[in-house]
Design a protein that fits this description.
Elements lengths: L2 H20 L8 E2 L18 E16 L15 E14 L6 H14 L3 E6 L4 H10 L7 E2 L2 E4 L5 E3 L9 E9 L2 E11 L8 E10 L11 H11 L1 E4 L16 H13 L5 E6 L6 H20 L10 E5 L12 H7 L1 E6 L1
Parallel strand pairs: 12-13
Antiparallel strand pairs: 1-6, 2-3, 2-5, 3-10, 4-8, 6-7, 8-9, 9-10, 11-14, 12-14
Amino acid sequence: MSVLRRSALRRAATLLSCLLLAAPAWSATSSYADLPGSADHPLVKRFAGSTLVGFKKADWDQALLPLSDRESSDGRSKLLDTRIVEGKLTRLVYLAPLGKTPLEVHRNYESALQAAGLKKLYSCDRDCSKLYFSWTKTADIDAGMAWSKGSIASVNSGTYNVSSPLNYDGRMLVGTLNQGGREVYVLTYTSSAVGEDTRTTATYLEIVEPKAMPTGQVTVDAKALQAGLQAEGKIALYGLFFDTGKADIKPESKAQLDEMAKLLQSQPALKVYIVGHTDNQGSLDANLALSQQRAQAVVAALSGAPYKIDARRLQPRGVANLAPLASNVAEDGRARNRRVELVVQ
């Protein structure tokens, strides 16, 4: 071997030694596992090799989804363009395998969701710090979350608690998927876990499956009925139940009928319209007929035994879906629109 070649090899070995000495030592080890009792949502699977460290599942709850990064001008940094959706809520936080970058993980979720037919409502693909801070101030994304035990290692020899690992340098995607004729909302936010020094990526995944709130759990009592009529001249009731497409009052409506009768008996001079409302499913003519029949059924129930309210004080009217309280696009809005109202004559 020539003197020149031996000299070059010695220089290369010396340079490599210096680089190894200068590199920060990875002296800590990340330690965490899937949160017991947690599970992937069947709609969106985890990035390969990831660990599920944060989890919340609620049969009925509310979520706030960003639609832009515009903030309020009052100094609170609250998001202005949002959509509130209600229904079955699932929140999941994953930590990807060591060395997987936020960009790689985000692009994989993006690709998979687009292939599944995602209709994009909003995305932030770069410079998302402003969005992150406004989002976390506007929506309490950690509310009700359960976290795995453990720590995330830093290249600087420190460790971080595994809970709340999201960071400001992330990317967000918000959209809807059509699943069996219903609209499901999906949000992903992917960032470095706590900071870039962990070399770990965190992903927050939120899925909302809109559905009607479980009803029959709260009845509007006579006192609240009176207060509503005095304040606005009307009040919406959700304690009167009918089978789909039918006008027969179901037995579980008795508690609400009792309170309506109590109000009317305590105020003999009070005259009201009983107004039936529907959602927009079906034709307008059919809904007009159905809403009128339901209003008449309520009048018949109140004027008959055991209440015996003078029927001349009760005027039934059906307005179908002509006076909605919410959009009929999703089931949660349609549930609000299906109602009976008391309106002062």
